[in-house]
Amino acid sequence: MNVNLLNIINRIVAEQGEGILDEPRRVSAFFTDLAKDEPKPQKNAFVKCLEHESAQALKNAPEPERDVCKQRLAQKLHDEEGLDLGLCGEALELLAAVLFVTEQKIKKNVCKNCGKELQEEWKTCPFCTAPTEADQAPEAANAEMQVPITQGDEIIIENTQLRRKLKKAKYALIAAIVLGIICTTISVIVGYGYYDAMGELYDSLSDKNEQYEAMSSNYYSLLSENNKIRNLLNIGYSVDT
Fold it and tell me: For position 236, what pLDDT does the model report?
């Protein structure tokens, strides 16, 4: 049995309630995020079990007939879905472990803290030194049994948190790139408009400069003609004198 996948499913059921087992699509969606590194055939076989309402069939079966019920459901899944019979059996065992884990722990009298099996006369768990139900107050003894968080659960939680941080970093990077593109586009537009304005100013100044050069040329031409006339007048005056 895939213990990591079992821990993931137990976590999903603990957070969403046992009714999640009646919603195969939601379970598959959780697998996409939480069980990304687990073998795909095992995940698909488990989801197919849920699609065939195997959870309800197992819960309705009397305890002495559960093994026969699992074999029958595995064979049905193999015949209708074409999955490997051994894989179907593993999926049903996994589903049964999820459905009856609390019942098995109560019958075996296990430690709430570490999950190890205890003897009835023990008042303290010899494995983790936690007090047993026999040494607790009646209110604590009747409290709901909690599934201990295993090392696999801690790794899954850390992995999920890391993925969320990576997603946030990815979105921040995308936002920074988009903002950079927008700023660059605005700069290009503004620069292009400024370039056009400067081009028009240059053309205007160039036209005025040409006009000035033409006027200057006319001025020097008139000045030269004026000098010639004055020289002629001076010569005529000298001759008459």
Answer: 60
